[in-house]
Amino acid sequence: MLTQAPKGTQDVLPQDSYRWQRIEDSMRRIAALAGYREIRTPMFEHTELFQRGVGDTTDVVQKEMYTFNDKGNRSITLKPEGTAGAARAFIEHHLFAEPLPCKMFYVSCPAFRYEKPQNGRLRQFHQNGVEVFGAKDASVDAEVIALAMDVLRANGIDGLRLAVNSIGCPTCRAAYHEKLKAYLEPRLPSLCETCRDRFVRNPMRILDCKEDAAKLTDAPAMLDSLCDDCRDHFEKLQSYLRALDIPYEIDARIVRGLDYYTKTVFEIITDTDNGPLTVCGGGRYDGLVEELGGPDTCGIGWGMGVERMIMVQDARGTAPEAPALYDVFVCTLGEDARLEGVKLVRELRAAGLRADLDHAARSLKAQFKFAGKANAKYVVTLAGDELARGVVRLRDMDASEEKEVSRGALINEIKR
Ligand code: ATP
Ligand code: MG
């Protein structure tokens, strides 16, 4: 118990963290190129924010939140996703008064959902994400999708399916709900219990049900009921995607199913041995800021599961190679040499080289072996008698070549 992390959590170990850093670096680089700046919001918020901001008919809010009362008896929830907190910050700090659009991103942001741990499902996971507030044109929908594709591709994850859909706006959705309910009503007895509950609260979510969707392939589609404005937006999005050479498919089953989600919704999906896995999901939420008490401001964003990216890299064999831990490993023989070694290592580091020496008083042979295992590019050997002559031995591990170099010229020699 004591030495076992809680179910649904994962450690990122020192030998693996470079993979997270690569993903994080690419996210920062690609987002910055498009004028996005980082936002960091608290790990917990008032529960009500998610009830309103994610929507109390969603699985996330109904079943998956980590909610508790703090010592002041406030209901607190560990954030299950990034958008609600970003929208809260946008309102609280009056970012709507700054020039819009306000473009933001987050990196490896922890998210918590009480889910059954299984293929690609954790209880603490991490998301990269972007949010854009105050841009209504479909060009920004295409931009955020392109960014997601670029981040995935930069990490060796391509060949993904982009599925897009439009779930309309409150104007056209009300009429659609009636049509959908008329279609669903006679079929209710054959649907799962959750869907029978959804029928009342949020019928569109039924189309997204992993159990029932297959039985409902002839359901009326929101796409056929879009109002002119929503239809126009969806068509523009598609022409932007085509202009950007981003292949997509239209999938009427993708619904995010909240009142304030509007128009564009999308998922980026990969096929695994255990079936389809969504790596990234997003959509437009033109009603969210107002719903949370801010001024009427449109928005769009996505969240991308970092653990799922890593899973896909593993499945495809596209994980990046681990970088060598050291440029230089310093081996020493004798106490005088160790003193010199400690100094040399500090100089090497100051010169921007990754360097270390043995801290366990191991034999010279064991030090060489360690240097080899650590993939050091160079091994420098300091021994008392050579030091007395002002020289050290420098071994190029890749070329398996060794030579004597004067102590004074060593760092330049390595940098060369
Ligand atoms: P799913 O249909 O897989 O449950 P979702 O709609 O709940 O996904 P979103 O809320 O869109 O997921 O979250 C965005 C992304 O975060 C997902 O595409 C996925 O990559 C990742 N994600 C969501 N839930 C989990 C989880 N429990 N464990 C790991 N990653 C997750
Ligand atoms: Mg989910």
Brief digest:
With 416 residues, the chain is of the alpha+beta class. It contains 14 helices and 16 strands.
Describe what you observe in this structure.
With 416 residues, the chain is an alpha+beta fold. It has two domains: 17-169 and 227-316, 2-Layer Sandwich (BirA Bifunctional Protein, domain 2), CATH 3.30.930.10; 328-415, Anticodon-binding domain (Rossmann fold). The chain contains 14 helices and 16 strands. The chain has helices spanning 17-33, 47-55, 59-64, 83-92, 138-154, 170-184, 193-201, 228-243, 288-291, 306-316, 335-350, 364-373, 384-388, 410-415; strands at residues 37-38, 44-46, 67-69, 75-78, 102-112, 124-133, 161-166, 249-250, 262-272, 275-284, 299-305, 328-333, 355-357, 378-383, 391-396, 401-406. Strands 1-5-6-11-10-9-7-8 form an eight-stranded mixed beta sheet, with helices on both faces. A hairpin with a 2-residue loop joins strand 9 and strand 10. The longest helix has 17 residues, at 17-33. The protein is elongated and about 90 Å long. Bound molecules: adenosine-5'-triphosphate (ATP) and magnesium ion.
> Low-confidence parts, pLDDT < 50 over ≥5 residues?
none
- Gyration radius over CA: 28 Å
User: What fraction of residues sit in β-strands?
Assistant: 15-25%
**Cα-to-Cα separation, first versus last residue:** 52 Å
Helix content: 25-40%
